[in-house]
Amino acid sequence: MPKLKTKASCKKRFKFSASGKIIRAQAGKRHGMIKRTNKFIRNARGTTVMSEADARIIRPMMPYSR
Q: Hey, what's the torsion of the CAs at 24, 30, 36, 41, to 10 degrees?
């Protein structure tokens, strides 16, 4: 049985936490910052944990990552 390939788009965008949850970048920060509030920009810094419903879609695309 050959090794499974990891989806290249997923390996660039997501990583796993020590507890096995998927970490992703905050959404909505690529462009159009002038119309966003300062509170939104401040709260959208860094990364966040992906919801479990979305994580179920991503997990099969990353077969060797937990």
A: 40
pTM (predicted TM-score): 0.84
pLDDT value of position 33: 95
| Residue closest to 61 by CA, chosen among 5, 1, 3 | 5
Domain with residue 32: its CATH number is: 4.10.410.60
pLDDT on residue 6: 96
Length of the chain: 66
Query: Which spans in the chain are helix H?
Result: 8-13, 38-43, 52-58
Residue 65 sits at φ, ψ, to 5 deg, of: -110, 50
